[in-house]
Amino acid sequence: MGIDPDGRSDVPVSAGIARRAQLEADCLSVNEVADLLGRDPSRIRQRLGGLQRSLLGWHRQAGAREWLLPRFQFDLGLHDAPEWARLLRALPHADDTSPAALVRWLTDPQTHLDGRSRAEVLVIDDELDALLAEAATFGIVP
Q1: Which of 86, 99, 108, 111 is 20 to 30 Å from 124 by CA-CA measure?
Q2: For 104-122, what is each residue's pLDDT tens digit?
Q3: Rounded to an integer, what distance in angstroms lies between the CA atom of residue 37 and that of residue 104?
Q4: Shortest CA distance to 103 belongs to which of 69, 60, 53?
């Protein structure tokens, strides 16, 4: 059995592996982010871990334990927003959960947000308190 590159497999493991590979392919490395932001790579790594994390990232699943940072946070200009850092700290570390589920939670359009994603709402509106309340329920199945 092969991997379904479109993520449409009926086999959950295959679909999950394909989603993770696609997600990793659309990420930036620490060095790429450092170049993008004009900062030292060590500063980027500091912002990825600990209690004061302010960038979303996780370690590559296979091979070297390098950090991967999803591109959307830079495309939307969230990377330097204090509200982004607060939202990230309200969520589990990506290495402690499913990075794919976490990115979907942040970027998928939501009907209760007028079709916008949580990340888009954070950029456009001042609804941080509502997003923090939702973050407290991340990973809880009703």
Answers
A1: 99
A2: 999 999 999 999 999 999 9
A3: 25
A4: 69
Mapped onto helix, strand or coil, the DSSP state of residue 52 is coil
What is the per-residue pLDDT across 3-16, written as a single tens digit (0 to 9) for each? 445 555 566 667 76
Of the CA atoms within 13 Å of residue 129, those in its CB half-sphere come to: 0
The reported pLDDT for the residue numbered 21 is 75
Please report, for the chain, the start and end positions of each structural domain, with discontinuous segments joined by +. Answer: 12-135
Handedness of CA 29, 9, 3, 14 (dihedral sign): positive
pLDDT at 35 over 60: yes
**The dihedral of CA 118, 121, 126, 127: what is its sign?**
negative
Cα–Cα dist 12/23, whole Å: 16
